[in-house]
Amino acid sequence: MQVSDFDFELPERLIAKKPLEQRDASRLLCLSDSDDAFVDGLIRDLSRYVQPGDVWVLNDTKVIPARLVGRKKSGGKVEVLLLEPMDQPNVWLAWGKSNKPLKPDTEIEFADGFYAKVISREGKNIEVLLLAEDVGHAIENYGHMPLPPYIDRPDTEEDKARYQTVFARHAGAVAAPTAGLHLTDALMHKMQIAGASFAHVTLHVGPGTFQPVQVDDVNSHVMHEEAYIVPAETARMVNQAKAEGRRVIAVGTTSLRTLEAASADGELQAGAGRTSIFIYPGYHFQIVDALLTNFHLPKSTLIMLVAALAGRERVLNAYDFARVHDYRFYSYGDAMFVPRSTNS
């Protein structure tokens, strides 16, 4: 299977650069589980697709303003993208961007009283020690939201609110679980009235979600690793639903990857872990029956995941339909509701 099998053309005008005024105003393309029928709708009508007893699983990670902009003592501009905290206090694994490679002991000033010192470098990764009276407060005050590279504009105060789900709880992501951006408290209440219940997992989305696949053969790709947590109550709800023949629906690809990575012999295991699970056509799903997701980049691991759930041809046909009908693509774009194919 070739990466080029998941390629498609996308006009620049269909890339959503800003969120809509209302979260639930996005469009929703619903696929069938057995044929190529598509239903053109709106996210705010998502409760129509709820079946009584559904368990909808949300990723409650919280995006941190992880992009820091500063200067070296020499005056050169530096951008640092925080990836994840290390074991030592205030030490972070990060990516650094500068006109020259950042060497150990390089000092970077982000703001008055907020600095970083490069501890080590390995390839594109650096470890930095952040120095401030209150490091967490400094990151919140001076950090920028790490918008995806295809949103080619400066971040704004609006992004701090809108590149975040309403149910975000646990800080640590450097990219949003974007399917969840559409949901509002009012919409979730409507879904509960229709018979849905909600469970949470936490997967801190890393920057690898935006990295292009560098190989031609899908089987040769190695996924980035991310940390996740499955609470005991979530495992209980999901396992009971599966035992009773009720649906488990992942809100977003990160929720889906967590559920599948943390399952064994068809049961979801509670606890913390790390996963580099790569889901592409041919994968046998253990837990997930349907997926709410945005429209993804061509040749990305995310479109491969959706194709694993619904079939490559059906997914590419759905993308063709979306392009013809001017759906908005990527993080701030519209969504799809994708039931698992009867063949997956």
Describe the 3D structure.
This protein has 344 residues and is α+β, with helices and mostly antiparallel strands. The chain has two domains: 3-63 and 160-339, QueA-like, CATH 3.40.1780; 67-143, Thrombin, subunit H (Beta Barrel), CATH 2.40.10.240. It has seven helices and 19 strands. Strands 2-1-19-18-14-3-12-13-17 form a nine-stranded mixed beta sheet, covered by helices on one side. Strand 15 (263-264) and strand 16 form a beta hairpin. The chain is globular, with a radius of gyration of 20 Å. The protein starts with 26 loop residues before the first strand and ends in a 5-residue tail after the last strand. Pathway: tRNA modification; tRNA-queuosine biosynthesis.
